[in-house]
Automatic annotation (TrEMBL):
Pfam families: DNA_alkylation
Residues annotated as transmembrane: none
Taxonomic lineage: Bacteria, Bacillati, Actinomycetota, Actinomycetes, Mycobacteriales
Organism annotation: Nocardia farcinica (strain IFM 10152)
Top-level taxonomic group: Bacteria
Protein name: DNA alkylation repair enzyme
Coiled coil: none
């Protein structure tokens, strides 16, 4: 590899420079890395998210193979940095908007490869905590599927992996921001009975965003139909901006 091309090792070194061992202890507790917890065994350097983002921006041209190296790391912040760099590369490719048909195909092929690598990382369990999912799903997979069939999200929502299910839900944030709640509602209906806390929170969060960003009536219409089946956590998140009287009525339906 040419010396002028950035490497995963350089990203690792940059993260190590801004790591704080005291923060590592706090982050391991915060992200539930103990035995039997959802982040069991994850390793932290002690790098705060703003610092990780700053490192990612420095290495925004990191080759995809080197991003894969980061995504396969045992260290949480290295995986996060890899995902943030992938976001940057995907967004930059999308902004190019070439007029030449060959260049358009090349851009689409580049984005497709990024999405495929992202999905591969998800499926091999490397996007395996809520911050990793929430920092990437809408920006890569969701952005890619904005103008494409979304059957893949139904497959992910039916997966055994908690993280694949959360990726499916959080990918729909891209659609919500574009004014489309249909896929969000379809996945939330599919996951109504999923009682994993991180799925409950994601369901409620996405429903709340529909009401906030698109139309409150869409949210209340969904809740009128489904509040009785929503878990307590999901309902609490979803009704955060609903008036108190209506919120109490939904709670009484459970």
């Amino acid at each position: 590899m040419s010396p002028s091309v950035s490497t995963a090792e350089q990203v690792r070194a940059a993260l190590a420079e801004v790591a704080d061992p005291a923060d590592a202890v706090h982050l391991q507790r915060f992200f539930k890395t103990g035995p039997g917890e959802y982040g069991e065994g994850d390793v932290f350097l002690g790098v705060r998210v703003p610092a990780t983002r700053a490192v990612a921006k420095r290495f925004a041209d990191l080759p995809l193979d080197e991003i894969d190296v980061l995504l396969d790391s045992a260290v949480h912040e290295e995986r996060l940095a890899g995902l943030l760099i992938l976001n940057l590369r995907y967004a930059r490719a999308g902004k190019a908007r070439p007029r030449d048909p060959d260049a358009q195909r090349e851009m689409a092929d580049a984005q497709r490869e990024m999405v495929e690598r992202y999905l591969a990382a998800v499926r091999r369990g490397r996007v395996n905590n809520w911050d990793l999912v929430d920092s990437s799903a809408e920006y890569v997979l969701g952005a890619w599927l904005l103008d494409k069939p979304r059957d893949l999200l139904a497959e992910l929502a039916a997966a055994d992996s908690l993280w694949e299910r959360r990726v499916a839900l959080l990918s729909t944030f891209a659609f919500i921001k574009a004014g489309d709640a249909s896929t969000t509602f379809a996945l939330c209906e599919r996951l109504l009975d999923d009682r994993r806390d991180l799925i409950q929170k994601a369901v409620g969060w996405m429903l709340r965003e529909v009401g906030k960003r698109i139309d409150p009536a869409l949210l209340t219409g969904f809740l009128d139909r489904h509040a009785a089946r929503l878990g307590r956590t999901a309902l609490s998140y979803a009704t955060e901006h609903v008036d108190a009287e209506r919120r109490a009525a939904y709670r009484a339906m459970r």
